Amino acid sequence: MADTVHSSWVPRLQGARAASAKFGFQRFMRRRSTIAILMCLPLILIIVCLVVYPAFYSIWLSMLNKSQTRFIGLGNFSYLLSRDVFWMVVQQSAIFAISAVFFKAIIGLITAHLINNLPTKGQRKWRGMLLVPWVIPLALSSLGWWWLFDPTHSAFNWVLTQFGFNEIPWLSAPGWARFSVILVNVWYGAPFFLIMYLAALKSVPDQLYEAASIDGANAWQKFVHITLPMMRNIISITVLFSLIVTFANFDIVQIMTAGGPRNTTHVFATYAFLLGIRSGDLPLGAATSLFMFPILAIAAIFILRGVRKRGREIG
Amino acid sequence: MQSRPNRRTVLKTAALATTTVLAAPYVRGAYAAGKLNLGCWDHWVPGANNTLTKLCNEWGEKNKVEVHIDYITSQGEKDKLTAAAEAQAGTGHDIMSHRDWNIRIHERVLEPLNDVADQLIKQYGPISPVAEYLAKIKGTWRGIPTTVGSQVKPCQSRFDLYKQHCGVDLQDMFPADESKYDKSKTDKWTWDLYLECAQKLYKAGHPVGLPMGQASDAVDWVGALFNSYGVVFVDEKDNIKINSDETRKAMEYLKKLMAVNPPEVYAWDDAGNNRWIISGKGSAIMNPPSSWAVAKRDNPDVAKNIWIHGMPKGPKGRFVGQLPQFYGLWSFSKNKSAAKDLLLHISQKSSVAQLVQASVGYDLPSFKSMYDIDTWKTVEPPKGVVYSYPPRGDEETSMFGKPARSEVGAQMYNQAINTVMVAKFTQGNEKLDDVIKWAEKELEGTLRA
Q: Which of A187, B124, B255, B290 has the fewest CB atoms found within 10 Å of its own CB?
């Protein structure tokens, strides 16, 4: 009897379990988080293959000897730290990135204000025109700039001599060469700041300005006490993003000076290319490029902490 | 209506299919001996690639091998990037052309080619010492010198301006016939006379244009000058020898020479000196005949007054910078014996003559016995302009980095330690002792294991 009872409820239980598992799976698939993960999966796979794997591979590579046959720990890093040229590269990268980001931010802020104050009808035209440098492929525009700065037949020098000025050694004197590569970077990157700042300006409620006007605030006071605080998060994120991209810049320096004269315009990426690809020392090249990582990570931590803090204050 | 297959039909079809599958590899098809993929340097001379393709296809048809060639530009080092990627991935072309130090860089994944090199040496005599230095590693040939793209960088001067402003007849000094070379005349062509002429030409408004950046044209001519002064950076036994009287003498000489060059030479890439002579403003450069060939098209008046000739002589001899290219066979190639046979075919003198002709004399084989190819005698204007492009008379080839171990030399060359050193002294006005100390420290770095 007992056997009969047992044999009758076991299949029912199994059926219930199967139905519940099926229902559970359907519920799992219907969850928003599951759908989100599934939709992000292709992107996650791409990031894992093209970003995460190469990043870990380059860390591994940087700890091998020149012929990639022996593990040498931090040998490549300590070697780099003992080289004068490397320290010059560190200095040049910092000058290049910080000054370029500073000028891009200033120019972006000014132009965003100018455009924001234009009548709505004319704004679109100006926005489109000012975005052109950012839209042209960088390698192509760098080549155009190189022609303008050409050591022998510079178009800028031709204009200068027409007005009776002396020619400027744009790319052959270290100071001018540094100036030239920074100028091109600012020209290329300023529109990104412009568009981000313009979006931020548009999101500032008009009522705040109206209230300030009633309180008798002038334009500068409105800018300092309303616009800047409302834009601080966007400014921080834009600066962080631009700092990362500018530190890692390769095209402009490689095309215009290839690191010369006398290595004075090398940045991390071009120096890594010189050591890794041209000189055939891939581990040393990987070690050079990885030096950017701690610098940018520290900058990112500080900037994002500030953004979160302000976000909490606003929230 | 379809009939159903009976047992006999099924067995017959299966037997036929099995026979076909088993017999297939033995059928002598159009490309029965497989396939070869080549990654070759993309020649700047229009049509030069076609000649190489023709030679390879002829060989392919004869040997039933399907040959496919990808021409890869050296602009932006794309060829070196491709080679680096293939070496890391362990897959790609079978044969790949390698410039300058790339054989040394990829030696671990390159097939030994002693059989091919020995056969060629037996046929045509010794290979240029520079090519041997770059491709023969620890007694094993890892690359075969190519004709395509291999070059030297001798003097290329406006003989009309030299005659007019310096009273020097370069055509008489280096006639288009080696048997007419007069030692008493060629011996007068020294670095001192070169400087004297450069100063006069500078005053006349036609300065010489000698690059002092970090590209290969600059590294090569400075390397040749240092060699002719007996300067050694690092010797075969890893001894750093840069702190020497020879170095000081050469550097003091360069200070005077760079003072009569246009200031922009410190920013020139490999095309800077070409543009200088083609513009008509420059009086002399050190380059392969590519600049003359472009001048022939763009500024014929300049081209007809250009003469390519030997380098100036220094206290230790006359040296010209050489930059050979090589074919390397990847160790992961699936068709090695066919690849070696193809390399032998395109290195034969009959093939080389076609390649030299297609490049209007620019491509230079690494066998001195091939320097009698007609092209160098007949190219014009002026007739014989490129005759002295291959090293003739007492001229020897040089490579900056030699005689150091090639892995050390590769670092020295690619980081342009010689030109940076000169630029620090001549442009940066740093003290000579400080510059030498800087170079010593950089050279110590290149010796790292």
A: B255
CATH code: domain B151-323+377-446 is 3.40.190.10
Q: Which of A65, A151, A277 sits opposite B77 (nearest CB)?
A: A277
Q: Number of A:B CB contacts under 8 A? A: 99
Rounded CA gap, B49 and B38, in Å? 12
Span A75-314: which CATH code? 1.10.3720.10
Query: How far is Cα B415 from Cα A266, in angstroms, rounded to an integer?
Result: 12
Quote the Cα angle for B142-B145-B150, to 5°: 135
Report the residue from A262, A278, A282 with minimal CB separation from B414: A278
Torsion sign over Cα B20, B24, B26, B28: positive
Domain boundaries defined on chain A: 2-61, 75-314
HSE, side-chain direction, 13 A CA sphere, residue A54: 10
B47 touches chain A (CB under 8 A): no
Q: Per the structure block, which two tokens stand in for B211?
A: 């690059």
pLDDT tens, residue by residue, A171-226: 999 999 999 999 999 999 999 999 999 999 988 898 999 999 999 999 889 989 99
Residue A147 identity: W
Judging contacts by C-beta atoms under 8 Å, the chain A residues touching residue B266 are 169, 172-173, 260-262
Provide φ and ψ at B372, rounded to 5°: -95, 10
In B, which residues are within 8 Å of A83 by CB distance? 441-442, 445
Nearest to B277 by CA among B211, B328, B229: B211
Q: Which of B44, B106, B108, B113 is nearest to B289 (CA)?
A: B44
Which tokens belong to B381?
């204007």
Of A85, A275, A277, the CB nearest to B84: A277
* Ranges of each domain in chain B: 35-145+325-365, 151-323+377-446
Residue in A79, A257, A263 nearest the CB of B420: A263
Q: Which of residues 111-140 of A touch B (CB under 8 A)?
A: none
Q: Would the CATH topology of B35-145+325-365 be identical to that of B151-323+377-446? A: yes
User: What letter does residue B77 receive in the DSSP assignment?
Assistant: G
Q: Domain B35-145+325-365 is classified in which CATH homologous superfamily?
A: Periplasmic binding protein-like II (3.40.190.10)
pLDDT tens digit sequence for B63-114:
999 999 999 998 878 999 999 999 989 999 999 999 989 998 899 999 999 9
Alpha-carbon distance of B57 to B68, in angstroms, equals 9
Closest CA to A190 of A265, A115, A93: A115
Q: List the single residue in B with minimal CA-CA distance to A265.
A: B267
Over 50: is that where the pLDDT of B384 sits? Answer: yes
A306 touches B at CB < 8 Å: no
